[in-house]
Amino acid sequence: xxxxxxxxxxxxxxxxxxxxxxxxxxxxxxxxxxxxxxxxxxxxxxxxxxxxxxxxxxxxxxxxxxxxxxxxxxxxxxxxxxxxxxxxxxxxxxxxxxxxxxxxxxxxxxxxxxxxx
Length: 117
Prior knowledge:
The protein has 117 residues and is mainly alpha-helical. The chain has helices at residues 3-29, 35-97, 111-116. Helix content is 82%, strand content 0%.
């Protein structure tokens, strides 16, 4: 059970027990429960309701962030797939239009310091 539903259960039990106790005491003795008990029950129910609302808002926000993340990942993958093709064609076309071949650098010793060692 999630936090939201536990908070709803606590609020329901708190309000139901307070109302039931007040009705029973009123029917039997003609009085009410002490004010402290009623205030405690109302505070517990109010806090549980606020907690349930916050838990629902958190769950909705989490769902939206997850959906946004999935959308962004899909979009970035799509952009990456298209960008690689376009850049490759652009570079090859540029090199062909300027008649440039890639410079080949042979492996081996370079400079005077390598020959002396």
